[in-house]
Design a protein that fits this description.
- The protein has 126 residues and is an alpha+beta fold.
- It folds into 2 domains: 30 residues; 89 residues, no CATH class.
- Helices cover 28% and strands 34% of the residues.
- It is built from 2 helices and 7 strands, in the order H-E-E-E-E-E-E-E-H.
- A hairpin with an 8-residue loop joins strand 5 and strand 6.
């Protein structure tokens, strides 16, 4: 075999090795599926741990007495997206802003819906 053919063969093998190496690296760097969406919709109330020993909350109810948790806000219209790892709350009137992301381990309670449970049952019965 001539020296030029041997050089071409070695070069081809080197190129094949490099391509296989990069292909293996790229193939091994797959991204996981990510968290699964469990539920989305309007949130009637949500309560979560604030990380300082207390809880915070929001409610759609107009009454301040209905606020879940130690502190929070009443008469809040929020769209919620609950995933296996967290919940995202996006507040009406704040479109274009980032969602409030709360890790699932801090969630105390969440209720989706457009009103209190008894009103939702009445609406569903119609």
């Amino acid at each position: 075999m001539s020296q030029s053919r041997l050089m071409i063969l070695v070069l081809a093998m080197l190129v094949a090795f490099v391509l296989a190496l990069f292909g293996g690296i790229a193939g091994g760097a797959t991204v996981g599926a990510g968290p699964t969406l469990i539920r989305d919709g309007w949130v009637w109330f949500a309560e979560w741990e604030d990380g300082r020993g207390g809880t915070r909350g929001i409610t759609r109810a107009a009454s301040p007495e209905a606020i879940p948790g130690d502190t929070g806000r009443a008469n809040v219209k929020a769209w919620g997206r609950m995933f296996t790892s967290h919940i995202e709350l996006t507040y009406e009137g704040r479109r274009g802003f980032d969602a409030h992301v709360i890790p699932m381990e801090r969630i105390v309670s969440v209720q989706f819906g457009i009103g209190p449970p008894d009103e939702q049952r009445r609406e569903g019965a119609d």
